[in-house]
């Protein structure tokens, strides 16, 4: 049969109208059904992880099936971040390296309630090559010495992600300076703690953070130098801060020019040197600084390189997550290793309809048209909800076609040939999925997901609608994001793949919680990671380090994650629980808070939720941030009168409606009766990293939430 491309399909449909559509559907669907009857069967699974005997505490251990020996470097000689970056720049001299969109104009729009919102008019991406970026890195490193930075002291980066963040990061390594990374959303107390604990002397920041630093300057005695990123507001902020501070304040450009005019010899690190002290926003108390060696970060990058198919300098990566988070730092290190282009954006300018994008301006994804991107589950959940809402609004033939296409693809992707195949795939792409894929630029071929568990429904939705596999990763700051990673040809959901080739993963029985490695049909236990990606421990916190890091008799370092997992027959890991999230109720039942929250998030009324269980009661309760749009649409349809969203959240009718939706979601997920919140409280304001109630990866900060809403929780138990 002559091959028919997608453009031919489109022309057939256009030429024959509705009859062409119906005919094409019949033709394209019948063929795979007939073939399914003839061929039958499902795709066979292959081993992805294999059991291995490793030292230390007894447990059930696995390694990646691809490599009997742990991977530590992407190629010989690239043992540190400095050497890896320099060699990659030489390999890919003229390839696109870092890209930034040109800011054309800023506008402010006034909402009906009087609040003003900033809207950005952004232009095309402006690129610098690997060769140009390497020169800037060397200039910055030399400039550091010229402004008087003591190479025996640490430096910190306190900013949103941007090209200069990565240039500064690599520049510090040219002089073997340890970098302290801090979330831009961190509160004052945590910021002061992080900078003082590590005795940072040079701080790199953006203009927004300059204002924050001015207010706490008297609490930062070790700071000597401030380097700010150049933008339209930074010069004024810098001159204002100069008057109230003893700091030496320089612009990023000034440091680069100084270095270019006064080149200095590099002082390169070795593999075991500490590259980064990464402060996590943490779910409890003050943040802890995780010490990552150059070897740790390089090992994770080298391992992930083996998982992403055919990654290279033709790829474009959309960078918008915080570089101070290990997930994004690891992802961008992988891109630099591969010679891919990194185009910077932000979560607020990501798509054409993002909050900060001026109407008529393209979002970052539309402008960049990336082939690779990373995402945390909350972002993918929003994409899914947005698409489904649009489909519902269209209704009619559009909704029917979408549902047919989705079901056909779902059958195919789950492993049966009795689904969308060949010509039918081209048809559904032309009719349904092409427009959806344009939301993220249209060229995505692989997505990395991490930072928190991704629901199976959302993973499958993105697989089908974006036409790209999702590499769902599992890792922690303490393992440099390197632990497990699902492979491109693995169509299962809910799992995080086999161990990366840079580490081993073993399960250790947790008898108290009822999880053991002898469980049938699959071994279960606490997830413990060992190998090249396991970090050196917590800075200035030996007690906590000794609690969760162990070294076996062979010298291998292991990290005890506190997560509960199980290994599937093919060697893939599934995270099923977390020690800290399990609460025993008054009558002895165990409630896994994270599991219940994940199930209830499927309700259309829920934007965020925290389930709370008290050992002195026999039921659990929940704090719910409702989806404003969904709740207001329901209220208007139901004739509920209210003045503002806060008043709506207080209404008994609204609480009852949300409660019923939670019960429905719980039944769908087959939760036990005691796991379903008996009472709920609706909160009108969203939980953001800036509010201190969720981490940068949008994980709940339970202790902070419990403290802030102590009164509301107490009322729920009365």
Summary?
This protein has 718 residues and is an alpha/beta fold. Helix 2 runs antiparallel to helix 3 and helix 13 packs across helix 14. It starts with 5 loop residues before the first helix and ends with a helix.
Main beta-sheet annotation: 8 strands, mixed
The CATH architecture designation of the largest domain is 3-Layer(aba) Sandwich
Q: Ranges with pLDDT <50 over ≥5 residues?
A: 1-28, 30-41, 416-420
Q: What's the CATH C level of the largest domain?
A: Alpha Beta
Counting helices, strands and paired strands, the structural category is alpha/beta
* N/C terminus separation: 72 Å
Helicity, as a percent range = 25-40%
Radius of gyration, whole Å: 26 Å
CATH topology of the largest domain: Rossmann fold
Total helical segments: 22
Overall tally of structural domains: 4
Mean pLDDT: 87
Number of strands: 28
Across the major sheet, the strand order is 4-3-13-12-14-15-16-17
The outline comes out as globular
Quote the beta fraction.
Answer: 15-25%
Catalytic activity: a long-chain fatty acid + ATP + CoA = a long-chain fatty acyl-CoA + AMP + diphosphate
Pfam family, one: AMP-binding
Pathway: Phytoalexin biosynthesis; 3,4',5-trihydroxystilbene biosynthesis; 3,4',5-trihydroxystilbene from trans-4-coumarate: step 1/2
Protein name: AMP-dependent synthetase/ligase domain-containing protein
């Amino acid at each position: 049969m002559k091959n028919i491309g997608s453009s031919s399909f489109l022309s057939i449909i256009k030429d024959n109208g509705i009859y062409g559509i119906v005919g094409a559907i019949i033709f394209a669907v019948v063929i795979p059904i007939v073939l399914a009857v003839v061929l039958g069967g499902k795709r066979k699974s292959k081993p992805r992880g294999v059991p291995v005997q490793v030292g230390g505490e007894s447990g059930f251990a696995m390694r990646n099936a691809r490599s009997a020996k742990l991977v530590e470097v992407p190629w010989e000689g690239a043992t540190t971040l400095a050497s890896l970056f320099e060699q990659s720049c030489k390999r890919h001299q003229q390839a696109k390296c870092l890209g930034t969109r040109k800011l054309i104009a800023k506008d402010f729009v006034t909402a009906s309630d009087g609040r003003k919102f900033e809207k950005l008019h952004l232009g095309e991406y402006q690129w610098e090559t690997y060769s140009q970026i390497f020169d800037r890195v060397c200039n910055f490193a030399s400039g550091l010495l010229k402004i008087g930075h003591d190479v025996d002291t640490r430096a910190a980066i306190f900013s949103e992600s941007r090209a200069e963040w990565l240039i500064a990061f690599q520049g510090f390594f040219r002089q073997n300076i340890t970098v302290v990374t801090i979330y831009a959303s961190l509160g004052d107390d945590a910021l002061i703690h992080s900078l003082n604990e590590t005795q940072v002397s040079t701080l790199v920041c953006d203009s927004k953070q300059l204002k924050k630093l001015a207010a706490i300057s008297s609490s930062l005695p070790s700071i000597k130098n401030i380097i700010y990123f150049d933008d339209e507001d930074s010069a004024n902020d810098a001159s204002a801060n100069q008057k109230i501070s003893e700091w030496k304040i320089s612009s990023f450009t000034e440091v680069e020019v100084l270095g270019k005019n006064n080149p200095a010899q590099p002082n390169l690190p070795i593999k075991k040197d500490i590259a980064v002290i990464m402060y996590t926003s943490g779910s409890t108390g003050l943040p802890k600084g995780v010490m990552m060696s150059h070897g740790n970060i390089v090992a994770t990058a080298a391992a992930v390189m083996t998982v992403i198919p055919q990654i290279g300098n033709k790829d474009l990566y959309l960078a918008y997550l915080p570089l101070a988070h290990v997930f994004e730092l690891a992802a961008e290190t992988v891109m630099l290793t591969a010679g891919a282009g990194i185009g910077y954006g932000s979560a607020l300018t990501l798509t054409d309809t993002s909050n900060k994008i001026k109407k008529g301006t393209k979002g970052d994804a539309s402008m960049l048209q990336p082939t690779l991107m990373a995402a945390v589950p909350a972002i993918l959940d929003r994409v899914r909800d947005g698409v489904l809402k649009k489909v519902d609004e269209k209704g009619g033939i559009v909704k029917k076609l979408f549902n047919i296409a989705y079901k056909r693809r779902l059958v195919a992707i789950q492993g049966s040939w009795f689904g969308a195949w060949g010509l039918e795939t081209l048809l559904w792409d032309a009719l349904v999925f092409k427009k959806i894929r344009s939301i993220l630029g249209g060229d995505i071929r692989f997505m990395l997901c991490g930072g928190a568990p991704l629901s199976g429904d959302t993973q499958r939705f993105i697989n089908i609608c974006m036409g790209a596999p999702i590499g769902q990763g599992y890792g922690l700051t303490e393992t440099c994001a390197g632990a497990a990673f699902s492979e491109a040809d693995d169509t299962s959901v809910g799992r995080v793949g086999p161990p990366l080739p840079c580490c081993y993963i073993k399960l250790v029985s947790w008898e108290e919680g009822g999880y053991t490695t002898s469980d049938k049909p699959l071994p279960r236990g606490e997830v413990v990671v060992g190998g090249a990606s396991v970090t050196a421990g917590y800075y200035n916190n030996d007690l906590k380090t000794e609690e969760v890091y162990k070294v076996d008799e062979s010298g291998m370092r292991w990290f005890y994650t506190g997560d509960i997992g199980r290994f599937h027959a093919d060697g893939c890991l599934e995270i099923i629980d977390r020690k800290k999230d399990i609460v025993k109720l008054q009558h002895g039942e165990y409630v896994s808070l994270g599991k219940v929250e994940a199930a209830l998030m499927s309700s259309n009324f829920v934007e965020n939720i925290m389930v709370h269980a008290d050992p002195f009661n026999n039921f659990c309760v929940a704090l719910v941030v409702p989806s404003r749009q969904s709740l207001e649409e329901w209220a208007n349809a139901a004739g509920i009168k209210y003045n503002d969203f806060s008043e709506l959240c207080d209404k008994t009718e609204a609480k009852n409606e949300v409660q019923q939706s939670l019960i429905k979601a719980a039944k769908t997920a087959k939760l036990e009766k005691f796991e379903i919140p008996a009472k709920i409280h609706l909160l009108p304001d969203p939980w953001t990293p800036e509010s201190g109630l969720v981490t940068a990866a949008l994980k709940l900060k339970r202790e902070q939430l419990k403290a802030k809403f102590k009164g509301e929780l107490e009322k729920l138990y009365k």
